[in-house]
From TrEMBL:
It comes from Acidiplasma aeolicum. One of its GO terms (molecular function) is transposase activity. This is Transposase IS4-like domain-containing protein. Residues 11-65 form the Transposase IS4-like domain. It comes from the Archaea. One of its GO terms (biological process) is DNA transposition. Pfam families: DDE_Tnp_1.
Length: 67
């Protein structure tokens, strides 16, 4: 994959593309680790639709689950 292949792509499509690409290569993904920039509903829904676990750091608020 070329470095600029995902330039201008939003986070939801970027994460979906990268995860599906890795999985198509036979890479077994146990947990997806992302930084705060990926904390949005679209990304979470996409990762959950692939039946994957994920960890995204977030500032504390009542809507965020702590584990």
């Amino acid at each position: 994959m070329k470095k600029n292949q995902l330039d201008g792509v939003d986070n939801v499509n970027e994460v979906d593309y990268l995860l599906r690409h890795a999985m198509s290569l036979g890479i077994n993904i146990n947990t997806v680790l992302m930084d705060r920039g990926y904390l949005n509903a679209g990304v979470i829904i996409g990762v959950e639709s692939l039946k994957l676990k994920y960890i995204i750091p977030a500032k504390g608020n009542p809507k965020v689950l702590k584990y």
